[in-house]
C-alpha cells in the first residue's frame, strides 16, 4: 500500500457484490485509477465454491463478520446470528445463490417517492446488461454478461409435490420469477456455473485483475472518513498493524453494506447528533437517518415430518449417503452438494386484499432445529415463509469510535402489529398448502410450530418462536429527499461532497425477494452516475480553462 493514495481517483470500501462491480466499471477507463479495499481475505477457501459449503462459511470468521443482534422483543427476547460476508465477493460468497430481482413495483415505488431514475423500466436494461442467462438473450434476460444464471441441477419428489399443492391452493406454477411480477411457485434460478458457486469476485473482479489502473487490497479495515472543508478527502484505515491515510482525488464510495456503511459514517462523525455526542466522537455533519430504517426479511421456519419420500435428512445421516453425495458432485457437479440452501420458491399474497405478492417461500427437503445444528434424523421438509415488505424498522449503531467493536444491531422484528397479522396469515396459508391433495400421500405432520397453535394469539406467538433472519438487511442509509434520508437519487451523501454509497443500505424499502442481484443493479446504476458526473466535471473544467495566448504575443 502506498503511503498516500493521491494517485487514486476513486476509493471503494468493501469488495462485496457492489464493490466488485463498481471496481470493474470504473476501472474500464484506463484514465481512472481505482483502489478497492476489503476487510476480509481472498475468496480462495474451497467451501466458498461448493454450493453446500455455505454451511461452513456462515459463522466462520474467515468468511463472515459473525455479527449478532441484540435481544429482540418480538422474538421473545431471542438474539440471532447475523451473517454478513467478510471476504472478496462479500455476501455473494456465503449466500444462498438465488437469482432474484424483486418486483417491478418495488423500484417503481422508489421512483415515485422522489428518486428519479430508479423505476423498473430504468433498471431492467441494467439487469440484462450484467446477465449471462442460461436461456440466452431475450426481452427480459441478457446473455454474455458477467453474472451467470443457471437452472438448479437437481429436483426432489417432495418439492415437486409442494409445487403441485401450491397450484391446488391458488399459487400457479411458474418457470421464471424475474419478469417483474414474481407471483407463483417454481424452482429458483441460481448464480452458479456448472454446479459451482458464481460469486461477484469471479464475475466482476478476477477477469480484470490485470488492469494496471486497479489496485485490490485485502485485510484493510476502514476506521473513518477523512473530511476536509465538507468533503470526503479519503480514509483512515488499519492495514498490517498500522494506521494509514488514503486519499482520493474524486470520490470515496461506500459499498460496505447495511451494517458497514452506516457504522463507518457514524465513526466519522456523520449521523444522529445524540449518538455522536454521547460517544464523544464529535459531530462533523448531523444526519439523523444514518443507521435507522433497518429492514430485514424474517422467515418463519415451518417443519413437516413426512413418509414415503427421500429427504436430505436421511441421506446426510447415512455414511453411504454422504459418500454417494460426494461421488455425485465430484463426477457430475450435481446432487445435494450442488444445492442452494433453498431449491423451491413461491410468492403469494397473505390475504386477497394485498395489491401484489407479499410472501416468499423458501422450501427445502430437510429440517433442523436451528442453523448450524445437525439435521433431524426423521424425513422432513421445511417451508420457510417471510413477509416481503415488513413495516417493522430497526437500527444499527456503533458502540464506540473503534471499528473493532461490533455494532449494536436491533432489527425490531414483529414490532409493528401489521407484521404480526401477516405472520399469522402466512402460517395459515402454509397449512392450507400442506393439506392440499398433492401432498397427502406423504402424510405431512406439522412439527414446528405444531398443531396446538390455532388462535390468532397462538399464531402470533409462534411467529416469535420460529422466526429467524433470512439475511437481507437493508435501508440504513436510505435514499430520499426528506430530513431522514442519507443519500440523494444519485447516491451522494446529503451535505458531504465527494462521498457516495452504493449498496443495500440505500434501499428506501426492501425489494420483494433475495437481495444480492438488486445490490448489483444499484452498483450498475451508481457506476453510470459516477462516470456521467465525472464527464460533466471534465467538460466544465475545459470550458473554464483560460484560452492560451497566441504564440509570439506578450
From TrEMBL:
Entry coiled-coil feature ranges: none
Keywords in UniProt for this one? FAD, Flavoprotein, Oxidoreductase
Q: Which Pfam families match?
A: GMC_oxred_C (PF05199), GMC_oxred_N (PF00732)
Tagged with keyword Flavoprotein:
yes
Q: Which cofactor does it need?
A: FAD
Q: Which residues form the Glucose-methanol-choline oxidoreductase N-terminal domain?
A: 85-108, 257-271
The name this protein carries in UniProt is: GMC family oxidoreductase N-terminal domain-containing protein
- Which organism encodes this protein? Zestomonas insulae
Amino acid at each position: 500500500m502506498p503511503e498516500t493514495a493521491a494517485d487514486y481517483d476513486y476509493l471503494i470500501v468493501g469488495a462485496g457484490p457492489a464493490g466488485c462491480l463498481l471496481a470493474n466499471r470504473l476501472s474500464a477507463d484506463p484514465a481512472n485509477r481505482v483502489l478497492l479495499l476489503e476487510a476480509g481475505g481472498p475468496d480462495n477457501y474451497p467451501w466458498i465454491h461448493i454450493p453446500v459449503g455455505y454451511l461452513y462459511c456462515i459463522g466462520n470468521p474467515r468468511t463472515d463478520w459473525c455479527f449478532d443482534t441484540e435481544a429482540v422483543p418480538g422474538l421473545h427476547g431471542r438474539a440471532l446470528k447475523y451473517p454478513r460476508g467478510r471476504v472478496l465477493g462479500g455476501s455473494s460468497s456465503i449466500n444462498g445463490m438465488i437469482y432474484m430481482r424483486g418486483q417491478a413495483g418495488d423500484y417503481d415505488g422508489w421512483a415515485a417517492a422522489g428518486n428519479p431514475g430508479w423505476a423498473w423500466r430504468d433498471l431492467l436494461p441494467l439487469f440484462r446488461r450484467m446477465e449471462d442467462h442460461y436461456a440466452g438473450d431475450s426481452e427480459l434476460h441478457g446473455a454474455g454478461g458477467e453474472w451467470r444464471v443457471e437452472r438448479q441441477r437437481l429436483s426432489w419428489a417432495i418439492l415437486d409435490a409442494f409445487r403441485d399443492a401450491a397450484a391446488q391452493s391458488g399459487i400457479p406454477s411458474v418457470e421464471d420469477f424475474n419478469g417483474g411480477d414474481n407471483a407463483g411457485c417454481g424452482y429458483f434460478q441460481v448464480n452458479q456455473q456448472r454446479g459451482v458457486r458464481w460469486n461477484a469476485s469471479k464475475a466482476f473482479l478476477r477477469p480484470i485483475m490485470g488492469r494496471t489502473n486497479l489496485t485490490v487490497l485485502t485485510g484493510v479495515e476502514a476506521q473513518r472518513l477523512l473530511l476536509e472543508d465538507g468533503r470526503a478527502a479519503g480514509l483512515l484505515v488499519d492495514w498490517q498493524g498500522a494506521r494509514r491515510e488514503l486519499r482520493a482525488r474524486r470520490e470515496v464510495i461506500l459499498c460496505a453494506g447495511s451494517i458497514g456503511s452506516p457504522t463507518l459514517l457514524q465513526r466519522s462523525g456523520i449521523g444522529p447528533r445524540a449518538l455522536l455526542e454521547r460517544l464523544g466522537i464529535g459531530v462533523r455533519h448531523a444526519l439523523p437517518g444514518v443507521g435507522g430504517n433497518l429492514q430485514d426479511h424474517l422467515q418463519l421456519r415451518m417443519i413437516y415430518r413426512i413418509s414415503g419420500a427421500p429427504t436430505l435428512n436421511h441421506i446426510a445421516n447415512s455414511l453411504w449417503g454422504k459418500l454417494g453425495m460426494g461421488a455425485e458432485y465430484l463426477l457430475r457437479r450435481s446432487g445435494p452438494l450442488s444445492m442452494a440452501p433453498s431449491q423451491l420458491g413461491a410468492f403469494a399474497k397473505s390475504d386477497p386484499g394485498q395489491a401484489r405478492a407479499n410472501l416468499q417461500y423458501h422450501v427445502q427437503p430437510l429440517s433442523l432445529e436451528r442453523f448450524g445444528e445437525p439435521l433431524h434424523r426423521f424425513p422432513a421438509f421445511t417451508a420457510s415463509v417471510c413477509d416481503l415488505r415488513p413495516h417493522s424498522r430497526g437500527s444499527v449503531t456503533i458502540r464506540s469510535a473503534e471499528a473493532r467493536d461490533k455494532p449494536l444491531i436491533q432489527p425490531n422484528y414483529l414490532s409493528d402489529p401489521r407484521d404480526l397479522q401477516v405472520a399469522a396469515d402466512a402460517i395459515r396459508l402454509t397449512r392450507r398448502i400442506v393439506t392440499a391433495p398433492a401432498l397427502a400421500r406423504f402424510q405431512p405432520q406439522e412439527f414446528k410450530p405444531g398443531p396446538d397453535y390455532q388462535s390468532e394469539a397462538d399464531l402470533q406467538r409462534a411467529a416469535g418462536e420460529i422466526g429467524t433472519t433470512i439475511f437481507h438487511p437493508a435501508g440504513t442509509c436510505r435514499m430520499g429527499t426528506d430530513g431522514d434520508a442519507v443519500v440523494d437519487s444519485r447516491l451522494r451523501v446529503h451535505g458531504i461532497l465527494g462521498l457516495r454509497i452504493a449498496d443495500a443500505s440505500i434501499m428506501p424499502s426492501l425489494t420483494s425477494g433475495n437481495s444480492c442481484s438488486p445490490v448489483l443493479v444499484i452498483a450498475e446504476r451508481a457506476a453510470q452516475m459516477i462516470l456521467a458526473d465525472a464527464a460533466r466535471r471534465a467538460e466544465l473544467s475545459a470550458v473554464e480553462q483560460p484560452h492560451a495566448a497566441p504564440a509570439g504575443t506578450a
